[in-house]
Amino acid sequence: MDATKGPTAGRPARAEDTALELLVHGVGGTTPEEMLGDPRTVRITGDDTAAVFRRADDIDAEQRPQDYRDKPVPEAYVWCNLTSGNGSRALWLLLLPFMVVNLAHWMRPRARRHRGRTVSAYGLLVRLTGLTLTVVLVAAACEVSLDLAAWQCAGTRACAQDHSWLRFLSPQLFHHGWWTQPGRRLALAALVPTVLTLLLWFLSHRTWSAYESAQPMPRGSTPEDATRTALGRPGFWYGRRLVARLRAAHTAAGLLTVAAAVGTSAARFDRAPGGPAVLDVLGRVLDALLIAGACSVVWVVARRGRSERRLDCELDETLVRRLPLAALALLVLTLVYAGWSRPSWESAGRLPGDATFGGVVLVQGVLVVALAAVAHVLHRGSPDSRTVLHGLGGPAVAMLACALGGVMTGGVAQRVADWVDGTGGTIAGPPVLLTWQASVIPPLLVVLLVLAGWLAVRTSVRTRRGLAQVRSDYADESEDAARTHQIAATRARAALTDRAPLAVGITSAVTMLLGAGALAGAWATGEVPARAAEGSGAVVDGAAQAAQALGSWLIGFGFILFVTWGRRAYKDLSARRTIGILWDVGTFWPRAAHPFAPPCYAERAVPDLTWRMATWTRVTGGRLVLSGHSQGSVLAAAAAWQLPPAMRGRVALLTYGSPLERLYGRWFPAHFGTDALEGLHREVVCWRNLHRATDPIGGPVRLPGRSGPRVDAPAFKDPLAYGRTALHPLPAPILGHSDYQADPAFEQERDRLLGRLRPGVPAPRSGAAGEDDATDVGGVAVAVDSERQAPPDGPAKGGQGSSGRSSG
Q1: Which residue stretches does the UniProt record annotate as biased composition, category Gly residues (predicted)?
Q2: C-alpha distances in angstroms, 706 versus 675, 751, 787, 800?
C-alpha cells in the first residue's frame, strides 16, 4: 500500500499528513551526514553528546506537507558519543567485572506474579556478589601497595636497595627514620587504595551527572498489568536513588577494606604477649567498629532494590553522605593507630592476605551457587525454551565476573611482585592463592582451545551442508565454487552467535571447578604449586612449575592485551563494530548491581527518543516510523514502551539487523522475552523486522502463531547478486550486519509500513478487538483498522526471493 492512498487521497495536504522517520543507528556509530545521505545537516535538538539532526532542506517540512505526501521526513538520532570518544575511555574497560556482574542482574529468568520474594532474593544475591568485587579490587590495591611495596620490599634490605623510591622506608638503609616503622609504612602506603576508592566514587558520581541524569517524561505510576515488561515503567530509566545508595555502600566498603588491611596487622602485633595494653584495647575497639561498619554496608546493600513503578527523585541524603564519611573517619583513626610508635615491631613474611582473598573467593562461590538455585526455581516456575542455559545465564555470567575480577587483580599483583623482586627470592611475593589462581589459567586455556576447535569443526560442517542451499537460492546463476563456499561460510559463521550460550556455560563451569581447586590447594598446602608438588615425581613437579610460570606470565600478558584491545576498539571503527556489540549490550542496562560499572547510555538515549516522539506527535498530529538498526532497534523498542499507550497508536516500528530476540530475548527473558515482544507488537500500530541469514547479530523476532510472519519479513538476499550482472557489474559484497538500506526491498518494506500507519481522521471508537476502530490521542483520533496488523501484500521485490524465504 502506498503512503499516499487512503484518507489523504483527493484532498489538500495537512500538517497531520506528514510522516516522520526517526532513524536510530547501531553499534559503531556514524555521522548524521551518512545516516541522512546529505552533506548538509542541521542539529534540531540535543547537544554534542547526543542529538537529533535533519537535512537542511527538511527544516520546515511541517510547514510544507504537500511536499512530503509520498515520502517521510527523515531525522537522525546520533548517540555514538555516549559509548565512544577519545582513547582515554578505554580505561572504562578496567571496570569490566563490575559491568559483567551488573549484566547478571538483568538476566533474571521470567517470573510469575507470586514469585516476588524469589525475584528480590535474586537481586540481593547479585548485589552482594557485586560488593565482593569491590572488596577484591581494593584488596588487590592493598596487596600491591601495603604488602608487596611497604611491608615486604621496604622491609628487606636487598629489595629496598634496588628501588630508590623505597629507601626512606627501609629500617636497614634509613636508620631511625620516622617512616621506617612498619605501621607508619603501612599508613603511608594506604593512600594508594584510598585514592583508588575515592576515584571510583568520583567517576561514578560524575558519569551519573553526565550520562544518566536525564529524567524520563513525567508519568503517573503504572498499574501492575499496564505493560508486559518492566521497561515500560515510569522509573525504569532513572535509578538515581539506588545508584546513590550503592555508591555510598561500595565506597564505604572500599575504605573499610583499607582500614582492615592496616589495622589488623597492627592489632595482631599489639595482642602479642608484652604488647602495650592501651594499644591492645584500642585495636580491639577499632576491630569492633570495622565489623559494625561492614554489617552496615551489607545492610544498606541488602535493604533496598530498584524502584521502577514511579519516578523516584528522592535521595537518602543522611545515608548517602554519612556512611562514606563515617568509613573515612574510621580509616583515619586506624591510620593514626597504626602509626603509633612501636620500636620493636619488624616486618617479616607476608601480610595476612591469603585469608582475605580466600574468604572472599569462598563467599563468591557460595553466592553464585545460591544464585543458580534461585534462578532455577524462577525458570522452573515459568519455563521458556528460548532462555539460555535453562535460566542459568545470570549465575554463569556472575561467575565470569568473579573470574575476571580475580584475573585482573591477580595479574596486577603478579606483575608488581615480579617487578619489585627483580633479583629473585628477596621477598615472599603475593599471597599463595593468587599464585594458585594463575596456575589454573593454562588448563582453562586448553579447555577454551578445545571448545574453539569444536566450534570450528561445527562451522565447517555447517558450511558444507549450506552449499546446497546456496546453489538452490541462486539456481539461475552459473555456479562458482569459490563464491558458493564464501556465502555458505558467511552464513555458518553468523550462526555461531547461537552457540554463545553453550560456550559461556562451559567456560563458567570449568572456571568454577578450577577456582575451587585453586582455593583448596592454597588452603591445604599453604605453598605455591611448584613447592607443593616437590617430591611428587618429576612429571608432576615439572607440570606444576610450568603451570605456575606460564600462568603468571599469561595473566599479566592477558591484562595488557585486554587494555590494548580496549583502546583499539575506541580508535578503530572495524574493531569497534566487532567488540562494540558486547560493550553496548553491557552498558545498555542501568546500574542496578554495581555503582562503579560503566555508565548506562540508555538512561540518556531512551528519554531523548521518548521526548522527541511525544512532542513531535503532539504538536503535528502526524505519523512516525521509528527506524532502528542493530542496537538502535533495542533503544527504539525501549522508547516505544515508554510512550503512553494512546500515543503508541501513532508509532510504527521498523527494525533491521536487530538483536531484540536473538540476544536480548534469550539472555534477558524477564524484559525482552516472548511475552514482552508480543506485547510490543500489540501496542504499536505496526512492526516490521528485517534480517539476513548472513547477519551474526540480528535475526528474526520469532513471535509465535500468526504474529511471527507479520513482524518478520522474509530474509533479505545477501549478496544481492551472485555474479556480475547489469545492475552489479562488479562483484556484490556480502553485507552481513551492515547497509540494510542498500537493499531495494528496504524502501519497499518501509513504504508498506508507512502506508499501514494511516493519518488521523475524525472517527468515533467503536467495535470489538479486531474490528475497525479509532483511538483518541490528545484530541486527535487515529484510525486503527484491522488491516494494520496484516502482512504486506506479498513479498518485497528486488531484494527477496527464494533465498530469503528459505533462509527466514
Answers
A1: 796-808
A2: 15, 22, 14, 21
